[in-house]
Amino acid sequence: MRLKKALLYIMGAVLFGYVLFTFINASVNDQSTIKGKVLEIVSFDETGGYSGKGLQTLRIKILNGSHAGEEVIVENHFTDNTAMDIRVEDGDTVVLYVDQRGEETFHITDFIRQRYVFVIVLVFIALLLLIGRTSGLKSFITLTITGLIIIKVMLPLILAGFDPIGASSLSAVLITVLTFGIVSGINTKSFSAAFGTLCGVLSASVIAYITGSLANLTGLSSDEATMLVYIPQNIHFDFMGLLFAGIIIGTLGAVMDVAMSISSAMFEMKSLNPDIATGKLVKSGFNIGRDIMGTMTNTLILAYTGSSIFLMLVFLAYKTPLIRIINMDVIATEIIRAFAGSIGIILSIPATVFLSAYLLNKYHSKKT
Question: Which of 16, 136, 253, 333, by CA, is between 20 and 30 Å from 65?
């Protein structure tokens, strides 16, 4: 037991160091993007600039890169698009793009936000370890591994031209097995939860694929998807496959939560009452699953709704007819995504309940 805890702490320390290193060195290798601090607004012409919408002339001190310590004059142009304009004040820290075509010039591309992202991540990790202790450490390890699998395995495979559904399915299996193995160990409870999770996620992806194909979804409903058409690698993406890959990964967390909650509860019932009949165990499992189902399906749909709140406000402002809204590619995509995921959650319940009841009845006193 002590050795197991020691290994967990070592793994947690290594992963924390990796996360810390990644945040601190996020832009070290990118010489075209550097950080700068606004020392002075030299002038502000409200009718100047390329579009006549305003021009700030700024004195900025470069904070990193080959020009670190130098002070440069940067022109910050405004347009009539508030989403694109970056209005800076004295003392702001900004991201600068170095244009090295011809005479070297600097352009403001955004505010520096990484320090605040870093702080909230540190607060999250600290609370996770402080309140959760060993369980919190396991959660941090599994969360980090999940992020690494997505960033280092799934996305590079898709970018290399592999089938998006296959890459996301492989990633889902790896995440599920490693998460349950680290959090709960290799036992009946983890096996049942993993089986229920994979059944639920597979069901969600199959239902989404069939429904999306019949509904003629394009997978190009977002601006980000359209941007993939023009990436320099000249990869011909399967955008429908990317859409369903997103459904697989987006559904995975909620289904894992449901499956583990049911499996863990049934495991505890069997531990407290080894003589409980299989029928009663199944009935109790379904009762637990129904209670969880009511909140988790709501959570998933609300998550997708929250991400579309700006779009819904636009529809409301322009009084767009409901029939037109439902038939839009972007809306139909979100509806199918949300409800396919919810169906996956529902179907994971019987899969987890029946397998848990069978394994607990046969191996309740053994670890598999």
Answer: 16
